Amino acid sequence: MYNGIDAVDIDMQPIRNYSEVKLVYFISFLLLVGFFVLNMFVGVVVENFHICRAKQEREEKAKRTAKRAKKLERQRRRMREVPYYADFSPWRRRLHNLCSSKYFDLTIAAVIDLNVITMSFKFYFMPPAFDMTLDYCNYVFTSVFTIELISKIIALGPF
């Protein structure tokens, strides 16, 4: 680059900074070539990214398809299986349906909440009548929880 700026003519000695206009040419050439090479590099990177992404999308689609097929096969198998409670007697099946319902669970949760509330009513120097009422409430709650235990053991089995 310096030799190009210093060049005067053929068979003549170079003169330092003889043609400074060539400096603009060299700088613009370097910038354009630099941008061109950078643009090519970015283009290659972007193209490889698109190729990798397309390959990854194909792999993910194949995985999703296989996963969906496995899920459908599991559902088909599950639909063909007879439920474990199918051979229960009619009254045990009704008890099983009752114990498996969400309303039964909500009722037991409400009884637990009431039990916690009544347990929080105790205080020091309680009147005997109030103490006896709380004891009866605890007996009722204990019997409800015992009935729940027995009905779930009968309906769902001991294990």
From TrEMBL:
Coiled coil: 52-82
Pfam families linked to this entry: Ion_trans
Membrane-spanning residues: 23-46, 103-125
Main location as per UniProt: membrane
Entry annotated with the keyword Coiled coil: yes
Membrane topology category: Multi-pass membrane protein
GO biological process: calcium ion import; membrane depolarization during action potential
Keywords: Coiled coil, Membrane, Transmembrane, Transmembrane helix
Compartment list: Membrane
GO cellular component terms given for this protein: neuron projection; voltage-gated sodium channel complex
Ion transport domain: residues covered: 8-56, 101-158
MF GO annotations: low voltage-gated calcium channel activity; voltage-gated sodium channel activity
Signal peptide per UniProt: none
PANTHER family hit by this protein: CA[2+]-CHANNEL PROTEIN ALPHA[[1]] SUBUNIT T, ISOFORM F, VOLTAGE-GATED CATION CHANNEL CALCIUM AND SODIUM
Protein name: Ion transport domain-containing protein
